[in-house]
């Protein structure tokens, strides 16, 4: 078992990992930037090390700084959390080259599934349906135009190394394709240091559904059910729930089996997510996220399995502690991402001092957050400051509970998207589970 672990992340997920380490009797070391100095969660770790100034490139994305901290702290392993270096194969490789275990898949697997075009090829080879598109990267405007005309508009231009909606553009004709191709490449280069893009058919009204997987180093893989992530604003997830209210049981079973088959075919170990689009009673593989997801607590609530602890155990070389037939999801869970952003200013980030923070509670309510009254939200990082989750026996009860919890949640001093969540949870289409990835953008346009 790992005895001392460095957490190469910040905020909510850093606190989440610290808590898991405490329960596993593992010493935790957390790194922080100058912008996060003084954050309360730093005091909960056994040691905290400053790794640089506020800009991510000089702190949380600086591999030399993190490796230096890991060596100074004499740790056995590094947990990357999500975002930052979580899916960086080179970082995983450097960790292991320095005899530090990386909590996640090996670097070759990260490279293989991190390249979305290669991941699609692996899915095809495993007999899993994929969205029609280019066989690999598209290197020129001319090739992009030829492929788009062949598969038919609309098409989606996507960064091979992308995520979070960045490096992604929809094209409905030749003119918008030419503009979108260049814009997506430039955005991808800025965000990921990789301008490579590919093209796939754009499904206009799908659900976005992901399967949580766990794999051990002995070659065993299980799936823990699905989460519906269709409530998105500009391709960024806002609300997740599990199970999906719009997936028939037979399709749910097939998607789970497909996720396990793909993971085994690429030698996947650790926690990960296999993502699909579902439309017209058919599902299509789109990508693998080789890390823990922001929305992992949804699965924790429905299965009772602590995914962060499982990540650490699996990285330590332990086999899976359960077989597929022992996984029996129960009830319904919903997660609302609480962001420091202003709904009245096109959801612009709203950093600053939190003057009041009243957190909801009661049966079936969970809040994963590192902020409190008196803490300051820096302008340098993602705007998410917490996650509000509820669990109940049924989806209807979960919705009622989430409405109550949102009404209790009060944050002052900065703007948040809590009012947006209240609006969504009281929308008739959401209440009936009749929503797709277009739902929120259409709601906000009315």
Shape: globular
Low-confidence stretches: none
For the record, what is the CATH homologous superfamily label of the largest domain?
ATP-grasp fold, B domain
Report the total helices.
14
- The spatial strand order of the largest sheet comes to 13-12-9-10-11-14-21-19
Fraction in beta strands: 25-35%
- Largest sheet composition: 8 strands, antiparallel
Classified by CATH, the class of the largest domain is Alpha Beta
In total, the number of strands is 22
CATH topology of the largest domain: D-amino Acid Aminotransferase, Chain A, domain 1
Structural class: alpha+beta
Annotated CATH architecture of the largest domain? 2-Layer Sandwich
Number of domains: 3
Describe the fold and architecture.
Helices cover 33% and strands 27% of the residues. Helix 3 (89-97) runs antiparallel to helix 4, helix 6 packs across helix 7 and helix 11 (395-408) packs antiparallel against helix 12 (418-425). The protein is of the alpha+beta class and 446 residues long. The radius of gyration is 21 Å and the shape is globular. It has three domains: 4-103, 3-Layer(aba) Sandwich (Rossmann fold), CATH 3.40.50.20; 132-201, Dna Ligase, domain 1 (2-Layer Sandwich), CATH 3.30.1490; 207-444, ATP-grasp fold, B domain (D-amino Acid Aminotransferase, Chain A, domain 1, 2-Layer Sandwich), CATH 3.30.470.20. It has an eight-stranded antiparallel sheet with strand order 13-12-9-10-11-14-21-19.
């Amino acid at each position: 078992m790992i005895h001392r672990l460095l957490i190469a992340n910040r905020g909510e997920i850093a606190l989440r990992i610290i808590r898991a380490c405490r329960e596993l009797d593992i010493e935790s070391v957390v790194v922080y930037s100058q912008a996060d100095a003084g954050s309360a969660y730093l005091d909960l770790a056994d040691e905290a090390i400053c790794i640089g100034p506020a800009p991510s490139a000089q702190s949380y994305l600086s591999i030399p700084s993190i490796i230096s901290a890991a060596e100074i702290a004499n740790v056995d392993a590094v947990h990357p959390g999500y975002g930052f270096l979580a899916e960086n194969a080179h970082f995983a490789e450097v960790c292991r080259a320095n005899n530090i275990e990386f909590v996640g898949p090996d670097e070759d697997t990260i490279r293989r599934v991190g390249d979305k075009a290669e991941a699609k090829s692996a899915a095809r080879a495993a007999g899993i349906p994929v969205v029609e598109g280019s066989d690999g990267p598209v290197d020129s405007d001319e090739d992009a135009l030829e492929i788009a005309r062949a598969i038919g508009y609309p098409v989606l231009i996507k960064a091979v190394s992308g995520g979070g909606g960045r490096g992604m553009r929809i094209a409905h004709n030749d003119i918008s394709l030419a503009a979108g191709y260049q814009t997506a490449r430039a955005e991808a280069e800025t965000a990921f240091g990789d301008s490579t893009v590919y093209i796939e058919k754009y499904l206009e009204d799908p659900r976005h559904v992901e399967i949580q997987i766990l794999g051990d180093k002995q070659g065993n893989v299980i799936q823990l059910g699905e989460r519906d992530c269709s409530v998105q604003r500009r391709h960024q997830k806002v609300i997740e729930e599990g199970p999906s209210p719009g997936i028939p049981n037979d399709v749910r079973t097939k998607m789970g089996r497909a996720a396990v088959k793909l993971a085994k075919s690429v030698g996947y170990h650790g926690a990960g997510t296999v993502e699909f689009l579902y439309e017209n009673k058919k599902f299509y593989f789109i990508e693998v996220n080789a890390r823990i997801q922001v929305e992992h607590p949804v699965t924790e609530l429905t299965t009772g399995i602590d995914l962060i602890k499982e990540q650490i155990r699996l990285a330590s070389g332990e086999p899976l502690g359960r077989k597929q037939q022992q996984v029996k999801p129960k009830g319904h869970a919903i997660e609302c991402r609480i962001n420091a952003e202003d709904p009245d200013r096109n959801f612009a980030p709203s950093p600053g001092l939190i003057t009041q923070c009243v957190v909801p509670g009661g049966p079936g309510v969970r809040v994963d957050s590192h902020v409190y009254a008196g803490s300051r939200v820096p302008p340098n990082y993602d705007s998410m400051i917490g996650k509000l989750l509820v669990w109940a026996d049924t989806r209807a009860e979960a919705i009622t509970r989430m409405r109550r919890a949102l009404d209790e949640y009060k944050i002052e001093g900065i703007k948040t998207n809590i009012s947006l969540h209240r609006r969504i949870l009281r929308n008739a289409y959401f209440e009936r589970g009749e929503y797709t990835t277009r739902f929120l953008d259409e709601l906000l346009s009315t």
